[in-house]
Amino acid sequence: MNFKKVAIWLMLLSLCGGTIIFANAAAQKVRVLINGTELDSGGIIVDGTTYLPLRQVAGSMQAIVEWDNASKRATVYKPNVHMFMYQGNSPFGVVNKGFSGKIKVFSQIDNLQTDIKSVKVTITDPSGKEKLIQSENVTSSNNFWFVTEEFDYKFDAVGQYAVRFYMKVTDADDWTVVSEKEIPSIVPKNNK
Question: Whole domain around residue 184: which residue ranges?
């Protein structure tokens, strides 16, 4: 009696193990790089078709993903968002270490093909410390401008500062980065 049970279990385990080995042999892993950065979990190729993790790909491309569970449909939206940094009426893109004062972010948004609930703009210093510049509920349209209020900021360190523009889709609770602008902070030439 015990021999029959052991034999049945061994046969079942052999079938399961063989199926897992076959499945691994049929699917090939794929490394995915977007703008030189590799995705954490790459893709797979099954029967000549490549499958990629949609949320990771969309996040790397700064796109919004909406999921409709009822129809099992994912829709990807990539709005155009262009940001400019200003101090007074003067735009800037590179600053000297120690640069400070009242600045604002001007954002031009177009090709927005979905409704959004709100936007926010942040700045992150080279050490990774993020500061909220402004967050606001918006009535979206395909094309609009968003200008932050002036805020005081000091570029204390040398390195890349990231200004990010986020959107929140109407039915979602999470923010999606749809644009990022890097502001290099450098050592002034006379201090080298």
Answer: 78-191
pLDDT in tens, 64-101: 988 889 999 999 999 999 999 999 999 999 999 999 99
In a shared domain, residues 175 and 86: yes
**d(C-alpha 144, C-alpha 39), whole Å:** 32
Residue 142: count of CB within 10 angstroms of its CB = 11
Instruction: Kindly give the residue spans of alpha helices, DSSP state H, lying in 49-143.
Output: 54-60
* CA-based nearest residue to 117, from 164, 76, 178, 169: 169
Question: How many domains is the chain built from?
Answer: 2
Kindly state whether residue 72 falls inside one of the protein's structural domains: no
Q: Are residues 187 and 160 in the same domain?
A: yes
Q: Cβ(38)–Cβ(60) under 8 Å?
A: no
Based on the domain organization, do 146 and 176 belong to the same domain? yes
- Whether this model's pTM surpasses 0.90: no
Structure tokens, 73: 């449909």
